[in-house]
């Protein structure tokens, strides 16, 4: 195992793990790619997950956003990832950090994230945090959403209970108004796996 | 850009990418994957018949190729070296799972989405894919390597370990099977 | 080096070969997962290597001082992640019922938001695709006719996407 580690380390070195991400190079204008790459490298050096930052940039490119807007979105997300990691603690897995960032974006507080971590010291909190974000996105106000998620966490509910809570709330809300153009949208009725 | 280069220049570039990847240049390995992915995914797609298996095999191939890159003795032919790994991974996959039994989900995933203007071509394509699935795995493997990927019988011997005589027979049987299944469905059939 | 047996005399087989060689093949965009897997390997090994280096340095210092260091580093626990490399993919179906569309694709965190990567199939008035996704949380949208971004009416909205377009979210669990 040590030999393998040495081999891998000698291959990549202790320097930047990501070098230059080829997706950013090929999809974004050069100046935007380099700004985003700097944010990605900085996040990596802080021990933050970097893939969400890259995906955010690619999402912006896909949706035709201007470079400044893409960079701003990546920078904001990077800050939220940092706050999330601070709230969760240094050994938090990447999925939890990413879910925590989404919660902060939705209006949750770092204290809520820390509390969920405290209630679930042995398990990932990615699903409860994700459900908290989902409830807010479905129109539940933050205190009410927090109350429901906190109750389940305090009762040591499994991940499936949190998802079921979200499904109960979302069932009457999945019918969305028609899109901005001709497509006629009908709820598919599919539930998540 | 690569199309304008002569074969030796493309080979040279592959060798340089391999050396850079071994030295820790992640972008170089990403470039190698991008350069050779199309041919590898085509083979995996038509041999295995569904996206999930093809993706898993292709991903496994790229991971194994990287981890064993220092054992690639001809860096200028790294594409063929990756193909050898892919052929073996596909064989392992076929041995583990009876793909014909996967059912409707696999059939749905196997068919290529068609645009409105190509409905006739799309039907012909679906006929081909169905006919391919009716070949034995050995026949399908030999046919794809010989006529779609343009390997010589000597190269296919090296890739699969099967003797050239057996490979020729498998290709012959594959052609007979495709001919029999598709003769009436061909767009050129009069 | 091509053999002399390369020539295909039968027109049907020749047509098959032409279609397989030059016809469309869905893109299997696995490079990012490969790089991710290699980086994950490297990060895991780097964490362990650092811990081992620290442990060795501490042991040497304390041995010099005449005492033994407890390997607390070995007891450090890494909380499991639902996105652990090697966690099995699961088939996830995306469906959109919509008429009057020429083309629909799904884009999201699982395919680099690339509208060319994952075109959906049409069955009458329903578009669908099934993708293997590892456990995790993915934001995504449908793209209609290569220009309009649509949320998935069958799944929760993702909230503000920073770009003003509708986005949905799916959580895949083990």
What does this entry look like structurally?
The complex is a heterotrimer of chains A (193), B (190) and C (174). Chain A is mostly helical and 193 residues long. Chain A is built from ten helices and no strands. Chain A has helices at 2-12, 22-27, 30-45, 51-62, 67-88, 94-106, 110-119, 126-137, 142-154, 159-170. The longest helix of chain A has 22 residues, at 67-88. Chain A is elongated. The model of chain A is unreliable at 5-18 and 173-193 (pLDDT under 50). Chain B is mainly α and 190 residues long. Chain B has helices spanning 7-22, 26-48, 51-67, 78-96, 104-110, 119-134, 137-148, 153-160, 164-182. In chain B, helix 1 crosses helix 2 (26-48), helix 2 (26-48) crosses helix 4 and helix 3 packs across helix 4 (78-96). The longest helix of chain B is centred in the first third of the chain and has 23 residues, at 26-48. The model of chain B is unreliable at 1-9 and 99-118 (pLDDT under 50). In chain C, strands 2, 5, 6 and 7 form a four-stranded antiparallel sheet that branches. In chain C, strands 1-4-3 form a three-stranded antiparallel sheet, with no helix packed on it. In chain C, a hairpin with a 3-residue loop joins strand 5 and strand 6.
Give keywords:
heterotrimer; A: 193 residues; mainly alpha; disordered C terminus; C: 174 residues; alpha+beta; four-stranded antiparallel sheet; three-stranded antiparallel sheet; 2 helices; 27% helix
Q: What is the number of helical segments of chain C per DSSP (H or I, 4+ residues)?
A: 2
Order of H and E elements of chain B: HHHHHHHHH
Q: What percentage of amino acids of chain B are in beta strands?
A: under 5%
Radius of gyration of chain B: 18 Å
Set down the secondary structure blueprint.
The complex is a heterotrimer of chains A (about 190), B (about 190) and C (about 170).
Chain A: H1 2-12, H2 22-27, H3 30-45, H4 51-62, H5 67-88, H6 94-106, H7 110-119, H8 126-137, H9 142-154, H10 159-170
Helix pairs in contact in A: 3-4, 3-5, 4-5, 5-6, 5-7, 6-8, 7-9, 8-9, 8-10
Chain B: H1 7-22, H2 26-48, H3 51-67, H4 78-96, H5 104-110, H6 119-134, H7 137-148, H8 153-160, H9 164-182
Chain C: H1 11-22, H2 31-65, E1 90-97, E2 104-108, E3 121-123, E4 126-133, E5 136-144, E6 148-150, E7 168-172
Antiparallel strand pairs in C: 1-4, 2-5, 3-4, 5-6, 5-7
């Amino acid at each position: 195992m040590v030999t393998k580690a040495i081999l891998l380390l000698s291959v990549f070195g202790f320097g930047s793990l990501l070098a230059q991400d080829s997706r950013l190079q090929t999809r974004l204008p050069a100046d935007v790619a380099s700004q985003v790459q700097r944010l990605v490298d900085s996040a990596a050096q802080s021990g933050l997950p970097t893939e969400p930052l890259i995906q955010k940039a690619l999402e912006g490119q896909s949706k035709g956003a201007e470079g400044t807007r893409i960079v701003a979105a990546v920078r904001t997300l990077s800050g939220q990832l940092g706050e999330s990691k601070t709230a969760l603690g240094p050994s938090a897995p990447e999925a939890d950090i990413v879910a925590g960032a989404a919660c902060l974006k939705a209006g949750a507080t770092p204290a809520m994230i820390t509390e969920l971590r405290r209630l679930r010291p042995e398990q990932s909190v990615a699903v409860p945090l994700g459900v908290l974000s989902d409830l807010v996105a479905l129109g539940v106000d933050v205190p009410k959403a927090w109350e429901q998620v906190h109750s389940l966490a305090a009762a040591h509910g499994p991940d499936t209970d949190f998802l079921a809570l979200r499904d109960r709330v979302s069932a009457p809300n999945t019918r969305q108004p028609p899109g901005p153009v001709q497509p006629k949208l009908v709820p598919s009725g599919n539930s998540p796996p | 850009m690569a199309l304008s280069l002569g074969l030796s220049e493309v080979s040279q570039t592959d060798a340089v990418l391999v050396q850079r990847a071994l030295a820790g240049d992640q972008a170089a390995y990403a470039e190698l994957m991008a350069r050779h992915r199309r041919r590898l995914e085509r083979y995996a797609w038509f041999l295995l018949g569904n996206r999930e298996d093809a993706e898993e095999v292709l991903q496994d191939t790229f991971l194994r190729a990287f981890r064993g890159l220092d054992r690639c003795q001809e860096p200028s032919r790294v594409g063929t070296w990756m193909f050898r790994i892919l052929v073996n991974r596909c064989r392992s996959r076929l041995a583990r799972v009876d793909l014909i039994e996967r059912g409707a989900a696999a059939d749905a995933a196997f068919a290529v989405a068609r645009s409105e203007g190509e409905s006739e071509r799309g039907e012909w394509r679906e006929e081909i894919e169905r006919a391919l699935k009716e070949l034995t795995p050995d026949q399908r493997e030999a046919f794809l390597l010989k006529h779609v990927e343009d390997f010589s019988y000597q190269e296919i011997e090296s890739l699969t370990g099967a003797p050239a005589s057996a490979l020729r027979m498998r290709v012959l049987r594959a052609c007979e099977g495709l001919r029999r299944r598709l003769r009436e469905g061909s767009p050129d059939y009069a | 080096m091509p053999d002399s047996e390369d020539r295909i005399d039968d027109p049907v087989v020749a047509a098959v070969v032409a279609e397989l060689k030059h016809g469309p093949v869905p893109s299997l965009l696995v490079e990012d997962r490969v790089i991710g897997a290699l980086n994950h390997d490297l990060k895991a090994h780097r964490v362990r290597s650092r811990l081992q280096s620290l442990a060795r340095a501490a042991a040497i210092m304390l041995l010099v001082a005449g005492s033994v260091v407890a390997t607390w580093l070995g007891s450090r626990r890494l909380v499991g992640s639902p996105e652990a490399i090697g966690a099995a993919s699961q088939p996830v179906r995306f469906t959109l019922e919509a008429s009057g569309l020429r083309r629909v694709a799904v884009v999201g965190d699982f395919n680099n938001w690339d509208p060319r990567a994952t075109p959906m199939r049409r069955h009458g008035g329903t578009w669908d695709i099934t993708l293997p996704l590892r456990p995790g949380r993915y934001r995504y949208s449908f793209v209609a006719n290569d220009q309009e971004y649509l949320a998935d009416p069958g799944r929760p909205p993702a909230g503000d996407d920073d770009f003003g377009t509708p986005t949905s979210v799916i959580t895949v669990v083990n």
